[in-house]
Amino acid sequence: MSDYQLGAVEAKFADIIWDNEPISSAELVRKSAQELSWKKSTTYTVLKRLCDKGIFQNQKGVVTSRLSKQEFYALQSENFVKENFNGSLPAFLAAFSTRQNLTDQDVALLRRMVEEYEEE
Questions:
Q1: What is the phi/psi pair of residue 107, to 5°?
Q2: Fewer Cβ atoms within 10 Å of its own Cβ: the N or the C terminal residue of the chain?
Q3: 23 SS3 class
Q4: Angle of helix 25-36 relative to helix 40-52, nearest 10 degrees?
Q5: pLDDT grade, residue 27 (50/70/90)?
Q6: Tens-place pLDDT, residues 1-14
Q7: For a pLDDT cut of 70, what percent of the chain falls above it?
Q8: What's the CA gap between 10 and 14, in Å, rounded?
Q9: Sign of CA dihedral 53, 59, 61, 62
């Protein structure tokens, strides 16, 4: 999978799958019509695109994820940091915290994460 980006509508569609998997393609068409006002052809077009990206698979009419929602967003975050901050998490955090104040809870959580990482 090389493209970890999802547009807003694709993300809503992906959430339908992640929230209901395994889901039959017929049920996915029904839910997409109900929640996104999509036609059957739109559902299958977007599903194929997301399957081609390696996020989902459609085998014998049953749609499942190849990446969990958490795995997908972790990969998307990694790519963002690589592309925009030369892979430097500290550079990202420095840029983030210049416009968005970190709460005491945020700082404590970050400390715990670093401590857990160091213990591994």
A1: -65, -45
A2: C
A3: strand
A4: 110
A5: very high
A6: 456 688 899 999 99
A7: 97
A8: 6
A9: negative
